[in-house]
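pasting PIG-L family deacetylase for the record, 267 residues
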Amino acid sequence: MRTRTLVSFHAHPDDEALLTGGTLARVAAMGHRVVLAFATDGEAGLASTAASGSDLRQTRVKELERAAGALGCARVVRFALPDSGWIPGHVPDEGTFSRLPVEDASAALTQVLEEEQADALTIYDPAGGYGHPDHQQVHRAGMHAAFLAGTPCVLEATLPRQPLLRFVRLARWVPGLLDSVEAQRFETAFTPREEITHQVDVRPYLKAKRRALQAHASQASSDSGPRTLRLLLSLPTPVFQRVAGKEYFVERTPPSSITHDLLGTTA
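structre below
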């Protein structure tokens, strides 16, 4: 098996740990080169004032460095494009990452893919997961950059929609758990299970994934309450293994030796 280079493109620090942390740790442990690329520094993200301090950008950059170390990543590249923030129903400001022309949003990533002679790129599904405009732009910009750089393999990090939607509907019956989440938003979120092409068993790498999640302490809560990261970290180990022990990807082209080397099994 030849050594591969995987570039993993994300919107904000902490995204890499949530959807791809176990896979990145697995790929790095197998001896492949893992490069993290971030569109924004997450300066407009939700965070509690107590946890993030006065400079959220600086806090999140430091957290990212610790998380990347926990996952075994060889390089971290930050493009420092303006974070769009996210409020349902609110149109992001002009000039933020999600509002940039795709040519501008993808330019720096194209350069990284060419520098690294990347074998594969991870992005998000077209829905941007739960619909964050920066995540949707990661999909568009990532696809464009891979085309320009000639990167042969593009993997969309995602989750199976159906079980997630069931969980969100059930969670509405638990006061305080997901009070701010609108269940109907998940009816078009992420990816239908039948479209998922790769299901990666990351249970042997969950310690690394947990350390990466823990590194992003500012994202565990906001001034309006706890967030997904806090919920994950509060799970007992057996439940955490069940919830976080698999990561999911969609490859729109037929699986190749690249995906076999990096991911191993398919769905």
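The chain has one domain: 5-263.
The mean pLDDT is 89.
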